[in-house]
Amino acid sequence: MSSLHDTPTVHGGAVRGGGPGLAALLVLQAWVWVSSVLPKLVSDTFLSGFTRFVGTMQPGRPGIYDHVLRSVVLAAPSLFAWAALGTELALALTFTVAALAVLRPRRAIPRALLVAASLASLVGIGFALNLALLAGDAAPWTLADPFGGGVALEYLVAGLSAATALTAISAVRRGAQPALAHAGGQRRGAAPSLRRTRQGEVAR
């Protein structure tokens, strides 16, 4: 049986069995960030497009946030453009590696990789919410046009990232429990054995 269906257990510095839910979340994360960063990597106009998009006031963008963009980001647009591109690329690589590791049958998942996926998910939350503000997306709890697109994609990505972080952290924490319980069972089992030995010695 694939390790996707096993209960997470820790083997040294690795976790065996991530669960199908974690695998699905990591695959979705990899797909989202790879599909987002690839067009930027192959584009010849990304830097100029970044400056134009940031400098254009979007309907729904908070005024304070727009002031920060104009006074800080547009002061060094190339720096922030490369930083955004590097962040997306790092997220895409992290989730792709983590997804491939979880999908491998009967292979332990390095604990450090799950921690990295958790941290990347937290970064993804902040990045997606920042994009939502940048694009001027309506808050996800507001009532929108019934024939519109519904909740903005950026908020969905933020929710996906939050679910991935919680699931990855839970996998690491639950994976540590069986090993601790096993060690505790061995310690508890030693005392009855000693008592039986002592009783045997008294009987003899």
Question: What is the compact description of this entry?
Answer:
The chain is mostly helical and 204 residues long. The chain contains six helices and three strands, in the order E-E-H-H-H-H-E-H-H.
Radius of gyration: 25 Å
Distance between the termini: 50 Å
Low-confidence stretches: 5-13, 177-187, 189-194
Strand content: under 5%
Number of helices: 6
**Largest sheet: spatial strand order:** 1-2-3
Summarize model confidence as the mean pLDDT.
Answer: 79
The portion of residues assigned to helices is over 70%
Record field, number of beta strands: 3
Largest sheet data: 3 strands, antiparallel
| Class based on secondary structure composition and strand pairing | mainly alpha
Mass-distribution shape: globular
Order of helical and strand elements: EEHHHHEHH
Topology:
Blueprint: E1 9-11, E2 14-16, H1 20-42, H2 46-55, H3 63-71, H4 77-103, E3 108-110, H5 111-135, H6 153-203
Helix pairs in contact: 1-4, 1-6, 2-4, 4-5, 5-6
Question: How would you characterize the overall build of this protein?
Answer:
This protein is mainly alpha-helical. Helix content is 71%, strand content 4%. Strand 1 and strand 2 form a beta hairpin. The longest helix has 51 residues, at 153-203.
Keywords:
single chain, 204 residues, mainly alpha, three-stranded antiparallel beta sheet, 6 helices, 3 strands, 71% helix, globular
